[in-house]
What we know:
CATH topology of the largest domain: Rossmann fold
Distance between the termini: 55 Å
Order of helices and strands: HHHHEHEHEEHEHEHEHEEHEEH
Number of helices: 12
Mean pLDDT: 92
Strand order of the largest sheet: 4-3-2-1-5-6-7
Number of strands: 11
Structural class: alpha/beta
CATH class of the largest domain: Alpha Beta
Radius of gyration: 23 Å
Low-confidence stretches: 1-9
Helix content: 40-55%
Strand content: 15-25%
Shape: globular
CATH architecture of the largest domain: 3-Layer(aba) Sandwich
Amino acid sequence: MKNKDVASENVEQSQETTEPTRAVSRDRISPISHAVANLVKQLEDVPNGDLVADIVTDAAKLLRDQTNRGDIKLISKSFSELRYALKIFAPYRDIRKVSIFGSARTPESHGDYQQAAEFARKMAAAGWMVTTGAGGGIMAAGHGGAGAKPSFGLAIRLPFEQKTNPFIADDPKLIHFKYFFTRKLMFVRFSHAVALFPGGFGTMDEGFEVLTLVQTGKSVPMPIVFVDRPGGDYWSSWQRYVKTQLLERGLIGPDDLNLYKITDDIDAAVHEVRHFYNNYHSLRYWKDLLVMRLREAPAPAQLREITRDFSDIKVSGDFRVGPALKAEQDEPAIAHLPRLTFHFNKREHGRLRLLIDRLNDMKTSAD
């Protein structure tokens, strides 16, 4: 798409969202509602049909709600983008992926570029896939280091700067997005780790967003690593701002600093990501119970240590070790893993990260 086409498309959307919408008469909506009800009934016996029925029902309500055409186009396009992206990711759902963020303007000769390429190469060698925004600079370094086969590209259409890098340009795992919010959702949805290299507003946006999502529990815990070139001060300068302007003013808590790691050592960055899954596998909630899936359960003495050191993050009851819950029957592939369950207060996510680290270190010491 040419740049002027992108700009005109944005203007067209802005104009459309201001147009008034004429009410659809009850006589015209009635047969549509009847047809939707019949379709919903047919979906009852289809796997996941209840959820598809909800989507169909809500879509039909847009006519009743007098939603204008511009807003309907936004919903339609974003839904289409999400559906297609989910389809592309589906065959690779069980492979861990690290998202790499950084400047699109970093030249190939720069130390940041070389660090990103080496990090991606080592993660791919360890069996991980690499996801970037598919542009130049750090994004090209990520794909170039990993190679095309283990790479995903989530491209955004912009009137400037963004050009698909040659490593992912013709790959079927390249997905084009019109909207930043749908693209961001796919980054978070299919990331098991995030690595950030020096960048501009976009990198800051992605970094603070993933920190916010993990800090508030809107995203599952994951390793977040900020990587500089050897001797670089980009992220150490950023952390000084975080400590003086956020921490010292009481805008974040000391434990929030546990959510990420800063390093200029690629091996340390790779270890930070991989060690996070040394024993910890994943978690989910069942009602108000946090269910943590592990490769090895803590021994009785280790469970006592956990109770002693982390009782402040539970609201009631005990830390318990046991098998998969009946509520987890939709995940048979990991039914064999032992569980650590407790009533988490859903606030202390920095402390939760320390608990995950403890569980991972326990397995290391046992080995």
